């Protein structure tokens, strides 16, 4: 079982799934992807399924989460594997150092969403990426 202290420079991507949704197939896909090294990234060290009263949390744990480009590649791979429409579902990221401090994986996790690209002026500094692009942080407020 992965533990925060084993990889203090790491972190995890978290996907919340409603209790009413069938999580069995999604969990199987995520688990087999980890076992079969389908993330194509040695920093992925495990996956976790957390069953809560109102929701389920699926987590992909990273040994070292300091590389932003690598984190984005993994978040896109999660999106592809689970076939989840992240325009309607938020994905979260939490550093293990913060989890150790908070005593929680979910408390103060940063929320991200894949958003559709705005049409029109491509020079707009506030343009959003396509669903195939990197996840965009919703705000700096922690969840």
Rg measurement, Å:
15 Å
Total number of helices: 3
Mean pLDDT reading: 81
Structural class: alpha+beta
Helix content: 10-25%
User: Biggest sheet: strands side by side, in what order?
Assistant: 2-3-1-4-5-6
What does this structure look like?
This protein has 143 residues and is α+β, with helices and mostly antiparallel strands. Helix content is 24%, strand content 28%. The chain contains three helices and six strands; from the N terminus they run βαββαβαββ. It has helices at residues 24-35, 68-82, 96-102; strands at 11-18, 44-51, 55-62, 91-95, 110-113, 136-142. The protein has a six-stranded antiparallel β-sheet. A hairpin with a 3-residue loop joins strand 2 (44-51) and strand 3 (55-62). It is globular, with a radius of gyration of 15 Å. The two termini are 25 Å apart. Mean pLDDT is 81; it is low at 121-132 and 139-143.
Summarize the structure.
The chain has 143 residues and is α+β, with helices and mostly antiparallel strands.
Task: Describe this protein with a few key phrases.
143 residues; alpha+beta; 3 helices; 28% strand
Write the layout of secondary structure elements.
Blueprint: E1 11-18, H1 24-35, E2 44-51, E3 55-62, H2 68-82, E4 91-95, H3 96-102, E5 110-113, E6 136-142
Antiparallel strand pairs: 1-3, 1-4, 2-3, 4-5, 5-6
